[in-house]
Write a structure and sequence with these properties.
mainly alpha, about 200 residues
Length: about 200
């Protein structure tokens, strides 16, 4: 493990080797998590009142899984490419999931909405930053990361601009978050080609 920059060490080749060795597993995990997120998002939008409790727990579980994934992604990156924003995104995802599990909706509507917005900003910035770092090392096919980052930031701005006055609004905001996150994961998985 390198703790300082060594000009004789090939960081790009280390990144490529680690990426290629775990690409199929990560891609499969992305598709599974994306499917769960999109299904939870659609159910959250389709049944906002009748089965809110069940959807709330499923959505909380999905958001916590995404948070845990961010920690795993950070730990599995090569040292030179590690990004602290993944840790922040992981913590925010897990906090949102815990809030969805335990707190009454009336108390958390605005808090969760703003946390989702900041989470999306961090996540979008992390994706754009990572894509630009990969481009500096001439790694191709990073457009999916940039697209996902821009999509996250646009959704965050929408979250911040919408009026949040009812639990029903939170339902649709949460549904949009889950569906957009699922779509971003699918685009990332689709763009994962062997380097």
């Amino acid at each position: 493990m390198k703790w300082f920059f060594d000009s004789d060490f090939d960081y790009v080749q280390e990144l490529i080797d680690n990426y290629n060795s775990g690409r199929k597993k990560i891609r499969t995990a992305y598709f599974i998590i994306a499917a769960v997120l999109i299904i939870a998002g659609i159910l959250t939008a389709a049944f906002p009142i009748r089965i809110f409790a069940v959807i709330q727990y499923l959505a909380a579980a999905a958001v916590i899984v995404v948070g845990i994934y961010h920690f795993v992604a950070y730990a599995s990156m090569t040292n030179y490419f590690k990004d602290g924003m993944l840790i922040i995104s992981g913590i925010l995802n897990i906090l949102i999931g815990i809030m969805l599990l335990f707190m009454p909706v009336a108390l958390t509507v605005q808090v969760i909405t703003f946390m989702l917005a900041f989470l999306l900003i961090f996540s979008g910035a992390q994706k754009i930053s990572f894509a630009s770092r990969l481009k500096c090392f001439r790694v191709r096919n990073t457009g999916f990361l940039t697209f996902g980052g821009i999509l996250n930031i646009i959704l965050a701005v929408i979250f911040l601009l919408l009026p949040f006055v009812s639990a029903l609004t939170l339902n649709y905001i949460l549904a949009a978050y889950l569906i957009i996150t699922g779509i971003v994961l699918i685009t990332e998985a689709t763009g994962m080609h062997k380097l």
